[in-house]
Design brief:
Number of strands: 3
Largest sheet: 3 strands, antiparallel
Distance between the termini: 31 Å
Structural class: alpha+beta
Strand content: 15-25%
Strand order of the largest sheet: 1-3-2
Helix content: 40-55%
């Protein structure tokens, strides 16, 4: 599918659609939370996702490697959530 989209010159549109859908899912999952912040681990082997999280206001706190054999290194990232549940600043 991606190869056909690239050949047809539609790849930027496909990526924009996927990114928009990811953003909607991201906001839907976080909108209902009433915590002050959210954290996640972002695999360093996927810099595109890390850049996406940064564009959505996630802040990199540092790097860590779980104490599991052959575990990858992750970016630990944080997002401040709106004080009121259901209100997004994103």
């Amino acid at each position: 599918m991606l190869a056909g989209a690239w050949l047809a010159g539609e790849l930027p549109d496909l990526i924009e659609t996927a990114t928009g859908t990811a953003r909607q899912l991201h906001n839907t999952l976080l909108d209902a939370r009433n915590e002050e912040r959210a954290t996640l681990l972002d695999d360093q082997n996927h810099p595109t996702f890390h850049a996406l999280y940064q564009s959505w206001a996630w802040t990199t706190l540092g790097d860590l490697r779980p104490s599991l054999p052959d575990a990858p290194i992750f970016h630990a990232v944080l997002l401040d959530l709106p004080v009121e549940a259901g209100v997004t600043g994103r």
